[in-house]
Amino acid sequence: MKTQLTLIAASIALISGNAVFAAGGGGVVADPGAMQGKHFDAKGKAPSTFTVELQNGLRKTLPFEDKRDFEESKRGFIAAPAYKTIMADAGNVAWDMGSYEFLLQGKDFDSVHPSLQRQAILNMGYGLYEVVPGKIYQVRGFDLSNISFVKTNTGWIVFDPLTSKETARAALELVNEKLGKRPVVAVVYSHSHADHFGGVRGVVDEADVKSGKVKIIAPAGFMDHAVAENVYAGNAMTRRLYFQYGVLLPRSPFGHVDQSIGKNTAAGNLGLIEPTILINEPFEKMTVDGVEMEFQNTPGTEAPAEMNTYFPQMKAFWAAENITGTIHNIYTLRGALVRDALAWSKNINNALYRYGNEAQVMFASHSWPRWGNDRVQEVMRTQRDSYAHLNNEVLHLANNGVTINEVHNVYKQPESLKSQWAAHSYHGSEEHNSRAVINRYLGYWDANPATLIPLSPKDSAPLYVEMMGGAGKIMAKGKQLYKQGKYHEAMEIVNKLVYAEPNNTAAKDLLADIFEQIGYQKESPSVRNSFLGAAYELRHGMPSGASPKTNGPDMIRAMTTELWLNALAISMDSKKAAGMKFTINLDTPDNGEKFVIEMSNSALTNIKGYQDKNPNLTIIVNRSDLEKVMGGQTTFEKLQAEGKAKFEGDRKAFDQLRSTMTTFTPDFELMPGTKSKKAPPAQSIKEPFEAPPIANSDGA
Which of 47, 99, 211, 252 could form a disulfide linkage to 34, CB 3.0–4.6 angstroms apart? Predict the structure, then answer.
């Protein structure tokens, strides 16, 4: 256990040490006992007889006779590098494929859902692969996503350059080593999630982009969504991803085995170079250095800004992250706006009817390609129908009175979809996706007034505990249910006890044991990680140290001034603003923007394109200098002293605004009684106007 805690502490320390740049992901938490099948946690439990029985039953009923995915995932393999580890420029391990090699022993792990174990093995592909002979290649297993290379007359078009500069650079070096060195002539960002653009500086130089030598192509709305989707609730998202991505879980049969669309996320430099070409039309054709492409805009599917691409000369369809080896998240557990399952299905249908009749290969930013027109159409239809059935059946149930608090126990895929691997929900899950559909259309309320304004759990739990006869009776019944394999029933009552008595170690340990068995049984890594991550924190407390820093200079530049002002309004403690009333004009001459910022009724608002005639204060500062304040590199006072910022009028308004600002840190409990009682280490004082943390959107 001490070894494991040391590894975790080292991981967090590495993350903390990356403060000078934007980290693409968390540190590597390897487990030296994984190959021997040892549990990494002294408090951890082996799979129960009920879990083993469930897994054995699944092994007999899942369609394991269909081995086409294994054949396709290996097809076109050219070479793997001699190394399994990629180092970040900052000195930490950015990527370690070797930490998952316990999966390749040929064992069945009873602590892993058999379908998830199959997916985890499929995602062990590592190296350079040929997709279309002499034309299209992929490097897989270097990051959460794939990086694809399309050969042009003189160079490469790179599709989705991974999360970090270091892994993307290593991929390009492997391609040039094995296929001959060629320049990158264009980069395509398929969508606005970080694992699809963050490594761009590993494959191109920004000077070549600015000179026009290299094109960067992206869907309309890309820049807004690349940052905006993850700002307003960024601090909460960052904390919640500890569960969804299993940040503290070692790579082990009892811990992290996969992230469904790839092994994990690289922990290196996350960058962003602004696109030079935006695709605005629903379908738009373009030829780049001899390669013909048609882009299909698919906004509001897997990402708010996303596009597929068809290569007519090669009869190859690039499915971005709209069609991969899994049914995706309609609601992502770290937190994000609920997606539209119907729109997703219809966009796949558009692609099927426009390109599916002639496409001979389909490849994507995750998973592996499918070859042959029949196979391409099969997978497209399977995923189209999965999203359509989810949307339609859940709404059918809702219209028959099934509520958001019931639907996850009622909704089931038809057997015809269950028998197809491409319909399995590794990234999503039927449980949380079905609830998401109702939430999208009807919201969170089940229409029972008792649940409309409920007591907070910490207030309601003591009532339940008292009425159930106290902790002793709950513990006895919880243990009985646990021994009977009735884990959800046990969770229902023991969770109440933990909320009522957050310092009850025995109750927290029992709830952790319950969570662990449920986690072992889940097909979706996000759900598995959430249960196992919660179990870990119940046993050992929540993590200390810093989380990955994502506010690197590229992300700050991409943040609009309006977005920054909106985020400041969220950072403001409205109680401190009681009675304040002022207006501030903000003028950034170098880009011609003007704003009015108004404090009124304890709310901070802003409007672009206006200036108040009688403001309390006018601040004049170039946007390029303001970015240094947003990035925490300087302060307004320093800019004033340097003559780079002017304050005209009553400075009191500025000082009042500053006094209301708070700093978010992802150090709040997700499970009660897990925060350390010790005083936290002293934090360096943060510039109040520094942009709030941007959540990591890797893997959506």
Answer: 252
From the CA atom positions of the chain, what is the Rg in Å? 26
Amino acid 508 reads: K
Say if residues 510 and 532 touch (Cβ distance below 8 Å).
no
Closest CA to 120 of 269, 326, 336: 326
Beta carbons within 10 angstroms of residue 684's beta carbon: 6
Q: Quote the DSSP letter at residue 311.
A: E
Sheet of 370-371, strand order: 283-288, 291-297, 307-311, 316-318, 361-363, 370-371
Half-sphere exposure of 526 (CA within 13 A, CB side): 28
Residue 410's CB: how many other CB atoms inside 10 A?
13
Show the CA angle centred on residue 375, arms to residues 372 and 381, nearest 5°: 135
Listed residue (308, 279, 312, 294) closest to 383, CA to CA: 308
SS3 34: coil
Q: How many other C-beta atoms can be found within 10 angstroms of the C-beta atom of residue 341?
A: 27
d(CA 671, CA 502): 9
Q: How far apart are CA 687 and CA 658, in angstroms?
A: 9
Q: Nearest 10 degrees: CA dihedral of 222, 569, 685, 651?
A: 120
Q: What is the pLDDT of residues 272-328, one digit of tens each?
A: 999 999 999 999 999 999 999 999 999 999 999 999 999 999 999 999 999 998 999
Q: Helices 525-540 and 505-520 sit at what angle, rounded to 10 degrees?
A: 160
Query: With helix as H, strand as E and coil as C, how does 492-505 read?
Result: HHHHHHHHHCCCCH
**Lowest-confidence segment of 119-128, 397-406, 667-676, 687-696 by average pLDDT:** 687-696
CA–CA distance, 700 with 695 (Å, rounded to integer):
11
DSSP string, 586-597: EEETTTTEEEEE
Q: Provide φ and ψ at 421, rounded to 5°.
A: -60, -35
CB 8 within 8 Å of CB 543: yes
- Count the neighbouring beta carbons within 10 Å of the beta carbon of residue 76: 19
Amino acid in the structure at residue 271: G
pLDDT, one tens digit per residue, over 472-521 is: 999 999 999 999 999 999 999 999 999 999 999 999 999 999 999 999 99
Q: Which CA distances in Å does 564 have to 561, 606, 625?
A: 5, 11, 14
Q: How far apart are CA 17 and CA 199, in angstroms?
A: 19
Considering Cα of 218, then 221, then 224, then 229, what sign does the dihedral take? Answer: negative
Q: Which two tokens stand for residue 557?
A: 């530049």
452-460 contact pairs (CB < 8 A, 24+): 457/499, 457/672, 458/499, 458/500, 458/502, 458/672, 460/496, 460/499
